[in-house]
Amino acid sequence: MSSSPHATIIGGGLAGSEAAWQLARRGIRVRLHEMRPAQLTPAHTGGKLAELVCSNSFRADNLENAVGLLHEEMRRLGSLIMQTAEESRLPAGGALAVDRELFSEIVTQRIDAEALIERIGGEVREIPQEGIVLIASGPLTSDALFESIRARTGADHLSFFDAIAPVVDAETVDMNIAYWKSRYDKNVQPGSEGDYLNCPMNREQYDAFVAGLLAAEKMAFKGFEHIPFFDGCMPIEVMAERGHETLRFGPMKPVGLEHPQTGETFHAVVQLRQDNRAKTLLNMVGFQTKMKYGEQLRLFRTIPGLEQADFFRLGSLHRNTFINSPALLDGTLRLKSEPRIFFAGQITGVEGYVESAAMGLMAGMFIAETLAGREPAAPPATTAHGALLAHISGTRSDDFQPMNINFGLLPPAPLPAGKRRAGKAERRLATSERALNDLAHWQEQRA
Questions:
Q1: Are residues 105 and 126 in the same domain?
Q2: Which of 45-54, 294-303, 305-314, 387-396 has the highest mean pLDDT?
Q3: 99-131 pLDDT, tens per residue?
Q4: Do 24 and 367 form a contact (C-beta atoms < 8 A)?
Q5: Are residues 168 and 269 in the same domain?
Q6: Residue 67 to residues 97, 188, 324, 329, 407: CA-CA distances in angstroms?
Q7: Is the domain of 253 the same as that of 177?
Q8: What CATH number corresponds to the domain at position 291?
Q9: How far apart are CA 87 and CA 253, in angstroms?
Q10: Does the pTM of the predicted model rise above 0.85?
């Protein structure tokens, strides 16, 4: 690739793929490096771009939820990831869930068909010495590259651990016990069953399950006295350690899940969500775990309806590494000490598929402006994208931790004149409406 301008992107995950797409849309040539499949990570299984590892859910898809706002902002900014999510969408109530194999396949096809993007296989062990570089290598950055990053930044890395939920063969679930239903029948069309398969428990079954979680043998970690977990991806047994009833107020909450035929209510419910379009795979919602494989099979087959279940994938644990972004990056994802180097994705300290892709989208736009000779400018902090960028660059560096998008990161919208109070849903909708208006104004300014 000899033409210029061009940019180098390291990492073909959600952030790297989105950034490459945004740059190509703006006429900029891209070298996109991805080390898989020649070198796999502890969590990935193949060589496709934008592979989804932990779950197939992009979470809530409405403007009363901050991630739903982020979805809509990305759609309006021309996101490849959001377009592909719509094309591979699966029923999931009010959430946006995708067929993960189809999703990655479409992203890969789109990137490979783009003449301005050159995909290069193999590990990048060092940051290139010149040119615009985007590091979007993710939480499982190879040891060699991270050493190069650390040498360049002079900063120690931080890390925590993400757990992955099991995936079940749908045909092996006992449908005499399990039933389809969305909580409170939300977003269910008349005559439809609902988008979640529910395995109900009575009090005795729940008590025995929690006891089994606490007693189960876990994976051991050498060299770590304390293993930090991100709250949004916490192993179910770690949640159980916080209190006997914790799971009943979390992933096993039974409220709104009475049996659709009998009206019976339950003490706890395990939910499974469709994982592929053929509806042959189901993932266990909120059941990330670090238990040993044998313990998982033994314990999960005590769940009513899963006694004879076959598991296509068992839960596992992987490292999630991120940089101390507030100390290292400016408000447009540039390395303060060397502004030709950008960072995006989970390595910056955002958590979640959507947040990672959103930062890739921003990085692509910022790099395009830089190569056009303009100073990049972030969206206002009243938008979801701007709020995430402010978190990355403006949080105290001495206690920086990864963060999902949430309304706490955005300043609340003022109430209409003369109105003193508003419900939570109304306040959130007002914040989302202001965000979309401010994003449109920012887009006009940058056009």
A1: yes
A2: 294-303
A3: 999 999 999 999 999 999 999 999 999 999 999
A4: no
A5: yes
A6: 13, 21, 23, 23, 9
A7: yes
A8: 2.40.30.260
A9: 31
A10: no
- Report d(CA 80, CA 55) in Å as an integer: 19
Q: Say which range, 22-26, 153-157, 192-196, 324-328, has the weakest mean pLDDT.
A: 153-157
State both tokens at 139: 């939480």
Q: Cα-atom radius of gyration of the chain, to the nearest Å?
A: 22
- SS3 assignment, position 342: strand
Nearest Cα to Cα of residue 203 among 269, 142, 278, 138: 269
List the single range of 77-81, 263-267, 292-296 with lowest mean pLDDT: 292-296
Range of the domain at 295: 163-319
DSSP H helices, 138-266, are 143-153, 203-215, 236-241
Chain segment 19-34, per-residue pLDDT in tens: 999 999 999 999 999 9
Alpha helices in 289-352 (DSSP H): 293-300, 325-328
pLDDT at 400: 76
| Cβ burial, residue 263 (10 Å; 0-12/13-18/19+) | exposed
42 in Cβ contact with 20 (< 8 Å):
no
Separation CA 198–CA 304 (nearest Å): 10
